[in-house]
Amino acid sequence: MNMKVIFLSCITILVVLVAGCTSTTIKTYRAAGKPAICDGINDNLGHIVVLPETAWRSDQKEPTKRESMALEEIKNAFEDFPCGNLSTPGGIRDYFSWSSKPESEILKQLSNEGVDTIILLRIEELTPNFYLTFSLPILWAGSNEADFSIRVLSVTTGDVLTDMRVRRSTGGPFNIRPAEWSRHELRAALRDVIWMENHGSE
What pTM was computed for the model? Predict the structure, then answer.
């Protein structure tokens, strides 16, 4: 068997191994409200504003690139939103530091604009992870992660419709995953939060 055949065989084995060792983990911590924004009860939330902000760790690499990537995926996730209207005066705003203001102030401001529901979205992680062990044999693992909190408020009543933190990660042993793949984790996790059908009968 020549070296080219050995090399191709090794690549094939590695691809199969990586594919077989990839899994997705979703952890949701719900403080209040329903497990999804569109839950079959809140059929029409009226005009909706999505206010995103970021809270990167101090050593976050390429925060500007991640902010751009996150905003793109937020827009993708909310496309065809099933239980409200994202047209003017609603919509997905640019990054807004909402956590530095009292919620009552934000509610009053957006009420005056004709908004019915506010979605406060705080992105904390959008990143690849890589782990290496120096035992014999040497092992490595990689994953992509999205970590965010989301809080949905009725402007009229101030009621909390949804309040949760979500962490979604995909990867496993022998994975090397680029940062770009993290965008899928954010989009998929947001779609789970939006659509009740992804939660079964919960």
Answer: 0.80
